[in-house]
Amino acid sequence: MTQRHGSQSKDEALLVSVAESIGSTLGTIAAKANAAPKVLSEMANSVEREGKRLTRETKRAARKITGAGSRKLRRNKPAKAAKRTLRRAASSVKRAVRSARSKKTTRRKASRGK
Q: 61 phi and psi, to 5 degrees?
């Protein structure tokens, strides 16, 4: 009988050891499950904060760009008008020269044909 009792104590020790390791593992899993919502909410807050910061910076940059662009356009309007006038004048001169040349060539062709 004593032998049987000894084997039970060995089995009992093994079962206790297995139960403790299972309990420890379950405790770790439960702790992680309890901590997960807090971590996720912190991550969501940081993502939201970063998103707001990014939108602020992009809006600020867009305001700077559009302001500078509109100032440059306003500043350059007279210069653009002057360039346009010069271009028109140059093109009208070129047109007049072309038409004069074409008239000369038609006169030459007409005189050769006669």
A: -65, -40
- CA dist., res. 39 & res. 31, Å (int): 12
Summarised one tens digit per residue, pLDDT across range 50-63 is: 888 888 888 888 77
At residue 13, what is the residue type?
A
Buried b (16+ CB within 10 A) or exposed e, 60-91: eeeeeeeeeeeeeeeeeeeeeeeeeeeeeeee
Q: Distance between CA atoms of 28 and 112, rounded to whole angstroms? A: 109
- What angle is formed at CA 23 by the lines to CA 22 and CA 24, rounded to 5 degrees? 90
In whole angstroms, what is the distance from residue 85 CA to residue 62 CA? Answer: 33
